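Need a sequence for this fold. Nothing fancy.
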């Protein structure tokens, strides 16, 4: 990512799940229907045949200390992991992030003035399925958003997590929306088309 340094911390998709087994291996592309990563190792997600429930490109409105900004994301990944209990980590940015970095939760440093990184994780009651995932503090049980972080050039913005609605899950992409009423710094809303980079072998459906 243009020489920027990332501090790699625990994978959010494993947080509170206990489902990332040692024998889970990254799926091979092609024959099993999984989309191959781009040659550059960064996201180039497009929708040549737009599926129902998908937008053409991830565009999110991010509230910074300077106010809301609409951002077209050039990195947009979905990483679904786990077996009996699944979770999925989504990474969005208007800068290039490698697939290897996106498979870990990132604490980016040295972002430019107009650069943002959004990382969030959803956890299913069992498998990650299509439907709505509210913030964890709004419900006692069931599918939730269990990790959320927004970063800009000032560091991390501690905003209210959005609700996540997954509207489509195909072999190569996951689509959905982020919604919420918060207008404080760190709030994020919008629609996404995320390239699948699944670490585990179990697919969202």
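Here you go.
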């Amino acid at each position: 990512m243009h020489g920027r340094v990332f501090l790699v911390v625990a994978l959010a998709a494993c947080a509170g799940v206990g489902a990332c087994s040692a024998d889970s291996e990254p799926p091979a592309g092609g024959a099993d229907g999984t989309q191959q990563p781009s040659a550059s190792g960064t996201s180039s997600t497009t929708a040549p045949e737009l599926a129902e429930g998908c937008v053409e490109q991830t565009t999110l409105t991010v509230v910074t200390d300077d106010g809301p900004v609409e951002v077209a994301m050039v990195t947009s990944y979905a990483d679904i992991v786990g077996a009996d209990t699944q979770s999925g980590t989504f990474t969005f940015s208007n800068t290039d992030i490698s697939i290897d970095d996106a498979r870990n939760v990132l604490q980016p440093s040295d972002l430019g003035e107009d650069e943002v990184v959004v990382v969030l994780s959803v956890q299913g009651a069992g498998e990650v399925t299509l439907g709505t995932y509210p913030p964890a503090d709004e419900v006692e049980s069931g599918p939730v958003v269990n990790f959320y972080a927004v970063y800009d050039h000032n560091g991390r913005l501690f905003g209210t997590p959005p609700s996540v609605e997954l509207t489509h899950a195909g072999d190569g992409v996951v689509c959905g929306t982020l919604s919420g009423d918060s207008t404080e710094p760190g709030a994020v809303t919008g629609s996404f088309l995320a390239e699948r980079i699944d670490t585990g072998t179990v697919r969202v459906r």
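For context: Residues 1-48 have pLDDT under 50 and may be disordered.
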